[in-house]
Write a structure and sequence with these properties.
Length: 458
């Protein structure tokens, strides 16, 4: 008799001519099946082994590689713009819903800065290792990508005009898969599941959904990934299933997942016809077919009065025809659909200033400041109003506050230099223009400002 190092049971060894295994026949069969399916095998009792997680490591490595390429190509390390993210494959309704479906996949590997990718990869490392160990590599990969793609579809449906990116939808999917997998007791028999695991997963889900309610974060992607993860986890084969049964079940899950993804993507496109129409109207404007674009936009906004991008584009069409009151009215409607949109704030506020509507501009910017004292554009706008009225000493602190809140705010540094020139604070103006040229030596306006100030007596 000999003792199996895996299960500890005594069994009668076979000392024939064939190579002898130290394991009992039952454990040999179980380990062979697990090895074929990519499920990590347990170490013999009394041994210490370091687990490896090649799938999780590869996913994290791929995300890191994409982020590194983005940074090396000039994308901001801390806060990439939506346009930069879209250029590298982020989800964006007008593109995704008009044929660029590959963005549903590529957006899973694009991130908005080091903090975004850092938090996501930390979550993936913790959840991914558990999933890879409990489910096996094939089931893990299938669940990860199905959840991630469905989360992208949910995001592009709920926020078609926003740039969606990140691995968080797929990570939420893995949380859902683990909840279903553990709850339904599909885990390998040799692994003891901590009773607190489901509670920890529930805490993770609740916390991140609450965090996702903050502006700029898409809970639609989180919820979409979670729902699909729960569904996939419920239908994936248990680790104890026979090899033939496991292969059959995985094939069926892959087929039905593909059908669900294609169907939901088609539904998103059908339920968001205004996004597709917006793209074709933009092409008309680019071709200078303003009247045709104007007619179609008027019809679109009448049919979809709550569609802010439609009102915004209609305002552009009115501006092209120098119909300023109509443009103001449409931008106001766009702003009303989403007052938190920095884009609508800037377009409406800038147009007020450009048209010399000082009273309306003052009311607008003061309202923005009251709603959020840390709104850099609100302070920039108030500074622009003071600058237009020749009140330079009042403009200077507003521009300084705007730059303190957002050092990259377009035009704020040059406007500060203008105000300092008007107030005859020549040394300060010289320092401001030199700072601008240090970042962009080809800035013509800053060059002219510096040339002027150096001729003035300090």
């Amino acid at each position: 008799m000999q003792r199996c190092p895996q299960c500890g049971r005594e069994f009668e060894g076979n000392f024939g001519g064939s190579p002898q295994s130290l394991n009992c026949p039952e454990c040999d069969e179980r380990l062979a099946q697990m090895a074929r399916e990519g499920i990590p095998t347990p170490p013999p009792q009394g041994t210490i082994v370091t687990a490896s997680f090649p799938v999780t490591t590869a996913l994290i490595g791929l995300n890191a590689l994409v982020f590194l390429i983005m940074v090396l190509r000039g994308v901001s390390f801390l806060s990439p713009s939506p346009q930069q993210a879209i250029a590298f494959g982020a989800d964006f309704g007008p593109l995704t819903l008009n044929g660029q479906w590959w963005r549903l996949l590529t957006s899973m590997f694009v991130h908005f800065g080091i903090l975004h990718i850092g938090l996501n990869m930390w979550c993936l490392w913790n959840l991914g290792r558990a999933a890879e160990q409990l489910m096996g590599r094939v089931s893990y990969l299938l669940a990860y990508f199905v959840s991630g793609i469905f989360s992208s579809i949910a995001s592009v449906y709920w926020h078609p005009m926003g740039a969606g990116a990140g691995a968080s939808g797929a990570i939420f999917g893995m949380a859902g898969v683990l909840v279903a997998y553990v709850k339904l007791k599909k885990t390998p028999s040799h692994l003891t599941i901590n009773s607190k695991m489901l509670g920890s997963l529930g805490t993770f889900i609740a916390y991140n959904l609450a965090f996702g309610a903050l502006p700029g974060i898409s809970n639609a992607a989180h919820i979409g990934g979670l729902v699909m993860g729960l569904a996939v986890g419920a239908v994936l084969p248990a680790s104890s299933a026979s090899e033939s049964s496991r292969r059959t079940r995985l094939t069926l899950v892959a087929i039905f997942s593909a059908i669900a993804l294609v169907g939901s993507a088609a539904a998103a496109k059908k339920l968001r016809p205004e996004v597709s129409e917006l793209t074709s109207v933009e092409q008309l404007l680019a071709q200078k077919k303003t009247d045709e674009a104007l007619t179609r936009l008027q019809q679109l906004t009448a049919r979809e009065p709550g569609f802010g991008p439609g009102h915004e584009l209609l305002a552009r069409a009115y501006l092209a025809k120098s119909q300023y009151p109509e443009a103001i009215a449409e931008l106001q409607k766009a702003y009303d659909t989403n007052p938190e949109s920095a884009r609508y704030q800037q377009e409406l506020g800038t147009l007020y200033v450009q048209l010399g509507m000082i009273s309306a501009a003052t009311t607008f910017f003061k309202s923005l400041e009251e709603q959020n004292p840390k709104n850099a554009f609100a302070h920039f706008g108030l500074g622009q109003i003071s600058l237009s009225k020749g009140e330079y000493d009042s403009a200077i602190p507003e521009f300084q506050r705007a730059l303190a809140l957002d050092p990259q705010l377009r035009g704020a540094a040059f406007s500060l230099g203008q105000a300092q020139l008007g107030a005859r604070h020549y040394p300060d103006a010289q320092a401001t223009f030199e700072s601008i040229l240090k970042q962009d030596p080809n800035d013509k306006r800053a060059q002219a400002g510096l040339a002027y100030v150096t001729r003035q007596p300090h």
